[in-house]
Amino acid sequence: MAPKLHLQIDDRSGVPVYRQMMDQFIYYVAGGTLRPGDQIPSIRELAAALGVNPTTVVKAYTELERAGFVEKRHGKGAFIAANAQALTTAEQEDALRRAAKQLAVEATQLHMSTPKVIDVVREELGALSNDRAADEAPVKFAVMNGGR
Amino acid sequence: MGPAIHARRLRKTFRTGAVAVNGFDLQVLPGEVYGLIGRNGAGKTTALKLLMGLLRPDAGEVRVLGRSLWDAPRGHRQRVAYVSQGQQVPDWMSLTDLGRYTGHFYENWDSALLKEHAVRWELPMDVPIARLSGGNQRLAALALAMASRPEVLLLDEPAAGLDPIARRELNSCLIDVLLRGDGCTILLSTHLLGDLERLATQVGIMDHGRIVAEGAVEDWQRTMRRVQVVFAEEEAPRDFTIPGALKSQTLGPVVTALARIADDAQLAGVRALPGVRVNVFTLTLEELFVDWFREPSAERPEDRQVDPSQPGFPARAAS
Lengths: 148, 319
Description:
A: mainly alpha, two-stranded antiparallel sheet, 2 strands, B: alpha/beta, Alpha-Beta Plaits, 4-stranded antiparallel β-sheet, 13 strands
């Protein structure tokens, strides 16, 4: 049985919609919500639920397949690939690096010193790990009510 | 397969002498969703009317599904539906009456689909259109357009005047049209650029009667950036340009450009300049649009084009 997914598209992020979808699937795999062998929604289903052009969903799925996260089974749909979890480590670092880059830009504009930036990051990490339920890794998008 | 919509060097001048459309080129492939964006008065509505055959061009060629709608037989025109900004439907009739009346003229009329949209959008079927709210009148016009099961759908600001919920419904209805899988082509003009990020495959920016830039939405999102270069000196060097800049502006030591950055390596040379700070920002379509139309000299688009092949191009003419 496929887990319930809450995908969310942000029109204001400037990130291509297919990339946003890809990232969220990868987050779900990284967080363990999606496991190898899980079926992912059909193109129709996802396009209708998110209100996005079906060709964009096709693009996201094709890219996920190309990257090895997803495999298509003829006539059955698309599934999370067996070795998807191994791939997420590199993706996680990429995602972190993108976020860090953004942080670096903003810190520079605010003329913050490097030690100060590192302090702030450390504090925020600390605050999160206190809040977090010990048994559950946070999945970035699961908290949002995407779709309809 | 040829393009679903084809226009070449279209020109339309009104009796007042106003040139509404001039040098308008457009190709929309079957199944594409093309978003036409532009300032008010850019000529979007006139362009759509020319495509729909409601206006006759002074010059140029226009074909929808292979021929001009101006003189196409009814059977051909039926394959195309158009919803204008101030859609005039006979408003003493109810949706039921209108469906019956309009349905007479269309071979593929789908009265079940009309009903489905009426239910979904909570449109009363048996009340004169005139008694509906402005937003509901628009939705009624759209429901009628959809019921003809068009192969090409031309929409002039379909979401104008709709509340956010109705807008969302409209979008999901357009997605349904796309999911139907018989290859409907949609051309819509809009100011709601957030909706386009989800819906459109192609976007064209219209200015002064023609399309001045166009591209695939995801390609723009991936490559169009706002790049800011800050020099340590009081003034940026006069001959400096940001590689890939489409529009550029210099204020003292800060050069800001709307640039196409296919690869960050493109900026390596700039980053290597001593004492220079480089910031790169992603852009939403809306931000891109605003950057595109940012001053100076909004009247003359040619002036604002930066040709990257000309290194000495002054980012901003002394004004």
